[in-house]
Specification:
Order of helices and strands: HHEHEHEEHEEHEEHEHEHEHHHHHH
Pfam families: AP_endonuc_2
Oligomer: single chain
Strand content: 5-15%
CATH architecture: Alpha-Beta Barrel
Strand order of the largest sheet: 4-5-7-9-10-11
Number of domains: 1
Distance between the termini: 23 Å
CATH topology: TIM Barrel
Helix content: 40-55%
Largest sheet: 6 strands, parallel
CATH class: Alpha Beta
Protein name: Sugar isomerase
Keywords: Isomerase, Manganese, Metal-binding
CATH superfamily: Divalent-metal-dependent TIM barrel enzymes
Bound molecules: 6-deoxy-beta-L-fructofuranose, manganese (II) ion
GO molecular function: isomerase activity; metal ion binding
Amino acid sequence: MELEKYKIEAHNDDALQTHNRRLAFVAAEVENAEAIIQKLVDFQVAIPSWALGTGGTRFGRFSGGGEPRNLEEKIADIGLLHALNKSSGAISLHIPWDIPENTTNIKALAAQYGIQFDAMNSNTFQDQPGQELSYKFGSMQHVDKAVRQQAIDHNIEVIKYGQALGSNSLTVWLSDGSCFPGQLNFRKAFQNTLESLQQVYAALPADWKMFVEYKAFEPNFYSTTVGDWGQSYLYASKLGDQAYTLVDLGHHLPNANIEQIVALLLMEGKLGGFHFNDSKYGDDDLTVGSIKPYQLFLIFNELVEGMDAKGMNHATDLGWMIDASHNVKDPLEDLLQSVEAIMITYAQALLVDRKKLAAAQADNDVVTAQEVLQQAFRTDVRALVAEARLRSGGALQPLALYRSADIRAQLIKQRGAKTVATGL
Ligand code: LRH
Ligand code: MN
């Protein structure tokens, strides 16, 4: 479903006066407004191909209708998000949920919408129909070499799909672990997993990155073989320079200081990217910034400080991806809110008075240090984010236009009320 340009222009004309008033106010407050707007224009967040349908839990799934029936319609949905906010210019595919039958056609279709292919995701946490060997007791950790080889072959196949589409990174999330004490020899599980990852690493094209995603628990509930940032860092360090850790915000034990983890991984040059979402309890995969917006700000504060300290390019040197699932919201509205939260938080982190913060830290002036951070967090930067969208040809208020243009109703009319998208 195309969103006609004239509809975006008409929407912006109606909202322009209010926008300009708000922009003038914040631009008067913020000295580096122009630089921030330009950084926002360049900043793109990859949308997960597995989060365009209504997710669910083991207790139930309540479809909202009009869900994409195939990869082509998923790319069209991301094209729609990108037309609205001009910040969703990439898709992250999950294999085999989204196998591109004809990579040339899929690549051409994505290009039409201005969509790039971000990290590819492998899947050795489910058994596929007709699969020879089961991953019930793990994949790369498995005691049976043949199961490990099956997982290695799958990851190498995923790299090939990615090469054909123009992706240049592979995310490996392993659900491997154990549910009961005694079930697993932790040392052998680590070594089997490392040897397996080394074979996948050896198949990486020279310009590719491998992201090792860690997770504390689920689906295993006693141990996870890539269970925290330290274990992921250990694997990535032993694998080589093309291997990095991937931080999924929902994959930590309660009250973990994620911003400190991010600062140290960045310092070590081993932070590869993010799966943004939010959570209150476990891996809830909720809308970014919906539960702990200040934690998200503190993470972006460390990112900006750490990336500038290393002279890194904010837009291209790390993998910026969302990983969410939607139980009660329209998937596209949820993703629009998540991208907006990321852009707002990035803008606030760019606002932090770094000189004043460093001086306060040098003086152990704890109060001023907090004031510097909260001054930025309490600044309403939404007009800067909207201005970046306007300059990129997007909508000033994406969610409002998505609703006023009645897009979900048109998708249901086009696809039906009972369509089910592959994914979570
Ligand atoms: C695991 C995870 C991983 C994906 C999956 C869909 O919880 O975060 O990144 O493969 O979700
Ligand atoms: Mn994830």
